[in-house]
Amino acid sequence: MLYDSLKRTIDIIGSTVALFVFSPIFIIVSILIKLTSKGPVLYGPQRVGKGGKLFKMLKFRSMYMYEIKGELVHAEKYLESNPKLMKEYQLNSYKLQNDPRITPVGKFLRKFSFDELPQLINVLMGHMSLVGPRAYQADELAHQQKVYPKTAKYVRIILQARPGASGPWQVSGRSFINFDKRVVMDAAYIKKRSILYDLWIILKTPIAMITARGAI
User: Fold this and answer.
1) Please, which residues have CB within 8 angstroms of residue 141's CB and are 6 or more apart in sequence?
2) HEC letters along the chain
3) Which of 80, 83, 53, 59 is nearest to 69 (CA)?
């Protein structure tokens, strides 16, 4: 399909150029993370990709590492060991207001979406696209479809495409938009996607990053 070929070409060229342009930020952010908290610079949570296949989505680590049973683990594991926090997390569309797990540097990175920059590597590798639906967690998709049963049809559509480093949700309010509305937006993108629409979203992405609307 012509669209898919053009989209992949734009992904390769765009991610390569962006990695070069943002390389100074990669270096600065990496140093800040190492100086201010224990643990690796990058974090690779599993996300659901095209066709339902799982992949490791790269992000700058924005959360503390916690020691559980003598082992240093990421904050995701800490969340799983805290039922009260996990319940709040699930009820709030897999987000936490004033999340205690986020480091001071991480708050800044998340506010302006700098923590998402390593996803350009995922784009180059073919796991993701520059533009596409949000990359969802497997347990998030399973749990939220039980909470919102009518969303199952939209999830099936979403999994037909590679998730995007940016997309309609990312440029339209992010965490202000709950799961049920988010999947409708993502499915609508799949149905109307075009190169021009992708370019329009790419142009809107820097504005969304600067304004930080809906960032948590």
Assistant:
1) 48, 155
2) CHHHHHHHHHHHHHHHHHHHHCHHHHHHHHHHHHHHCCCCCEECCEEECHHHCEEECCEECCECEEEECCEEEEHHHHHHCCHHHHHHHHHCCCCCCCCCCECHHHHHHHHCCHHHCCHHHHHHHCCCEEECCCCCCHHHHHHHHHHCHHHHHHHHHHCCCCCEEECCCCCCCHHHCCHHHHHHHHHHHHHHCCHHHHHHHHHHHHHHHHHCCCCC
3) 80
Residues 39 and 64: their CA atoms lie apart, in Å, by: 8
pLDDT tens for the chain, 216 residues long, are: 789 999 999 999 999 999 999 999 999 999 999 999 989 999 999 999 999 999 999 999 999 888 777 777 777 777 777 777 777 777 776 777 778 889 999 999 998 889 999 999 999 999 999 999 999 999 889 989 998 999 999 999 999 999 999 998 888 866 667 888 999 999 999 998 899 999 999 999 988 887 765 455
Instruction: Give the C-alpha separation, 11 to 80, whole Å.
Output: 35
In this structure, are residues 151 and 144 in contact, taking their beta carbons and an 8 Å threshold? yes
10 Å CB burial of residue 8 (0-12, 13-18, 19+) is: middle
Q: Are 189 and 154 in contact (CB under 8 A)?
A: no
Determine the Cα–Cα distance for residues 104 and 147; give it in Å rounded to an integer. Answer: 33
Q: Which two tokens stand for residue 212?
A: 């930080």
Length of the chain: 216
